[in-house]
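Entry 14. Ran structure prediction on the chain below.
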Amino acid sequence: MFSGVVGKYGGIARDALARWLAGYRLHPNLLTVIGLLVTIWAAVLFARGQFIAAGLVLLVAGACDILDGALARLTRQVTRFGAFLDSVLDRYSDVSIFLGLIVYFARPTPDQSLFYVVLTGIAMIGSLMTSYVRARAESLIAHCRVGFLERPERLTLLIIGALTEVPGAEGSYFLHKMPAVLWLIAILSHWTVAQRVYYTWKMTRALDAETFSSAEVTPRAFSQSAFAGGAGVEKEAEL
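Output, structure tokens:
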């Protein structure tokens, strides 16, 4: 119920902002590019250790990511290339955020940690593979929308992690959650990949079985009809 209320009023706010942007004749593809540039800005802030500022900038980037599709639908500019561009730039955005975090953990600061460099890299790989597996699966089956951790969830987790990185908050239970966020993304993204691989295996297996059955039935039907036709010819010859 709560998610339904959030979705309803969130959709109203999104559509209102899309109508406002449409008044300025902003092209949806340009908004997609702006979203990437804003994300790169957030990545630079992450690399510099300015986590709260990066989280706020990511909120703007997330808004751009939501609004470009709504704007395209509102202005009737939905195109195949627009969907393709959005997907490509989303991958650049994902890599930029994690690269910023890798630079931060690799810098000679009190938070320098090879362990978190590797963990962030694992999270980045999982994020890319989550999107890749779905795209590859949907070239074979109708859809592959299974799994929990998609891009909106990853972005939300990163924003939460960034906004809780208050200086001197290491001892607080409710703050300093970026390490926990990286653990969640690293684990759940690869779990989502596994879910999608398993789902695709089940669906392709069913399709392959159906294809094999069809190929098996056709020759049998043909041979039976040929046999019936041959019997008819013999009967005619006997008469």
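Residues 178-238 form the longest helix (61 residues). Will compare against last week's run tomorrow.
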